[in-house]
Specification:
about 20% strand, zinc-finger, Zinc finger PHD-type domain-containing protein, zinc ion binding, 4 helices, alpha+beta, elongated, Lambda Exonuclease, Chain A, Herpes Virus-1
Length: about 220
């Protein structure tokens, strides 16, 4: 399960390094640009933000922006390595985030990303920034209530049916594959346990409703066979 990041490795690739190195430059340019037309503008960084009403959802926008005229919003910055020199040729690239009018494509992953930012941070707008050595684009994107209405229940269902069970059992954690695990819940050996006399499978007392260890005991599968 990729979401569990069991096999996470450091992404020491040029595109990631470029984005990390240029983000602060782009953020400062954004702040300077927006300050010209927004009173009392303040741009700050933030870490992981968790939505209190749905704590399984979190996001990490590249900035929190506030001003007296527009209130609070979030900032998402992209410094595309492929087009780091300029955006020339990007409009012909079907995988690029901007369309021919240099507007964020509603079908692009980044559009979904900033909608999550807005929902989690409880704001109504996101300033989407694309920075290259020659161009600097800022697009203000509003909250897409219809998209959120359609996707949030799916996210809830995925969490309950897939992520939460894995958080509890760590069934697919490669680090635990070599450890003995309960055949019923797949969690590793801890607390009181019992082995089936026939198949030698391992079970927690609580998983098979045992309080005291019997002299002879068979699991349900073996007892029925």
């Amino acid at each position: 399960m990729d979401i569990m990041q069991y096999n996470k490795t450091t992404l020491n690739v040029p595109s990631v390094i470029w984005g990390e190195n240029m983000e602060q430059t782009a953020r400062q340019q954004y702040s300077d640009f927006m300050s010209k037309n927004h009173q009392g503008l303040l741009v700050s960084t933030c870490g992981l933000v968790v939505q209190p009403s749905e704590p399984h959802l979190g996001s990490s926008p590249d900035g929190i922006v506030t001003c007296t005229c527009c209130g609070k919003g979030v900032v998402e910055i992209k410094c595309p390595y492929k087009y780091r020199e300029s955006l020339q040729g990007s409009t012909e690239d079907p995988k690029f985030c901007l369309d021919n009018s240099l507007v964020l494509k509603p079908s692009h992953t980044y559009y979904y990303q900033i909608q999550l930012h807005m929902f989690v941070c409880d704001v109504n707008y996101c300033d989407f920034v694309v920075w290259t050595k020659k161009e600097f684009i800022v697009q203000r994107v509003g909250k897409d209530h219809k998209l959120l209405q359609d996707t949030l229940p799916k996210a809830q269902e995925a969490f309950v049916s897939q992520v939460l069970p894995e958080l509890l059992t760590r069934r697919f954690d490669p680090a635990l594959e070599s450890q003995r695990a309960c055949k019923f819940c797949r969690r590793p050996d801890f607390g009181k346990t019992i082995d089936c006399n026939k198949c030698s499978s391992h079970f927690h007392y609580s998983c098979v409703n045992i309080r005291r260890k019997p002299t002879m005991w068979s699991c349900l599968d073996c007892a029925e066979s």
